[in-house]
Amino acid sequence: MTVLTMHYLGKDPILREKARKVRDFDDPKLHALASDMIDSMYHYYGVGLAANQVGSLKRICVIQLPEDEEPTVLINLEITRKEGEREVSEGCLSLPGWQAYILRAEKVWAHAVGLDGKPIRYKGVEDLLAQALEHEADHLDGKLFVDYLRNKEDLFEVNHGEEEQGEGAARPTPGITGGE
Ligand code: ZN
After folding, report:
1. What is the number of structural domains in the chain?
2. Best exposed site among 29, 88, 138, 169 by fewest CB in 10 Å?
3. Sheet containing 86-91, strands listed edge to edge, beginning at the edge strand earlier in sequence
C-alpha cells in the first residue's frame, strides 16, 4: 500500500495546472499510479481523487461512492454535457476542513477510458456521482470547487468527520486502517 502525499490549495501550484491526456494505456507507471491513488483515496477518506492532488499531471482520477463496492479508475475523463442546476454542499481533500455551497449540474454526461483501455460512458447521471465527476474533471482542468463560490458566506468551516458531501465525505473503508 502506497499513500501519496496530498497537495493543498494555496501551497501547491500543480492544483492549478491542466493534466495531460494519457496515450499509453499499457504504461506500468500508469497502473502503479492508479493503484497508489486508490490507496491514497482510502487513506484520506475521499470519495474521489485526481492525479493533480497527488502531484501527477496524468489525466486520471479515481472515484468510489459510499454505495460502490469497487473503486472506478477514470482515464482521460471529459464531461461532454450538463443539464440543470442544483445547489450542493461540497468539500475537497486539497482544502481540508472547509466546505461550500455551490451550484452543480443536475445531470452529467461524461466519457473516460478504464485501466483496461475500454471506454466508460456516463449518460445523464445524477446526485453524488454527477457531483464527483464534475469535481474530478475540474481538478484535471486545474479548477477547484471554491472557484464556483458566489459569495464568501457560502464557504464554511467543518469539524473533522462532519463532512457530508463531495470528495472529502467520510466513508467507511473496510480493511483499510490508515496510517495516522
Ligand atoms: Zn477535490
Report:
1. 1
2. 29
3. 86-91, 98-104, 155-157
- DSSP character string of 33-64: HHHHHHHHHHHTT-SEEEGGGGT--BSEEEE-
Q: pTM, whole model, 2 decimals? A: 0.90
Residue 114 has pLDDT above 80, yes or no: yes
* CATH number of the domain bearing residue 105: 3.90.45.10
The answer to whether the beta carbons of residues 86 and 102 sit under 8 Å apart is no
pLDDT tens readout for residues 36-52: 999 999 999 999 999 99
- Which helix (H) or strand (E) segment holds residue 140: the answer is helix 127-140
Q: Please write down the HEC assignment for all residues of 80-95.
A: EEEECCEEEEEECCCC
Query: 73 vs 166, which has greater pLDDT?
Result: 73
Ligand 1 centroid – CA 130 distance (Å): 14
Domain that includes residue 40, residue range: 13-157
Catalytic residues: 136
pLDDT higher than 90, residue 167: no
In a domain, 4, yes or no: no
Q: Is the pLDDT of residue 173 over 50?
A: no
Ligand 1 mean position, distance from CA 28 (Å): 25
**Distance from Cα 146 to the centre of ligand 1, integer Å:** 10
Q: Ligand 1 centroid to 168 CA: how many Å? A: 8
